[in-house]
Amino acid sequence: MIKDMPKLVAQAKTGDAHAFALLYEDIYKDLYRFAYCLMKQSQQAEDAVSTAVLHAYEHIHKLRKNTSFRSWMFQITANECKRQLRLQQKTLPCPSEELPQTESYTVDYEEQFTLKQAMSILGDTERLIVGLNVFGGYNSREIARYLHKKEGTVRSSKSRALEKMRSFLNGTDAT
Length: 175
Hints:
Blueprint (H helix, E strand, L loop, with lengths): L4 H9 L3 H23 L2 H18 L9 H22 L16 H14 L3 H11 L5 H8 L3 H20 L5
Helix pairs in contact: 1-2, 2-3, 2-4, 2-6, 3-4, 5-8, 6-8, 7-8
């Protein structure tokens, strides 16, 4: 995490591309994980993050508080993911990504695939809440503000979503 993020944001607002690149480099992995959680496919997640970052770069001058850069980026990314998902629903469905059937994949790929499956059983809002919490590091109050929901509603939705995932991972059905 960058120590003096507000200073870099201020520089980026003046058109400093290098400052924006440093901000992007610091947040990219978290944005990608979050987008992947929502989009369910790696290429679509990369596309959503790329589009969101381009939009952010073009509109960074509109960011009111320099200390809010991280949450602002997650909001833009979430909006872009939602936009792309709406477009997908209007077109033919894409086949889901599947790992090739070989023995050469490491446990990390297997865990990633299992997590993807567990996330896929969640509804859109549940996936958004879990993604913002786990990958974005946001607490229930921040998520509630973003989603315009009550904090208790977010906590109970997150709890139910995590229980669904836990049940799925343990081989029982909680859906």
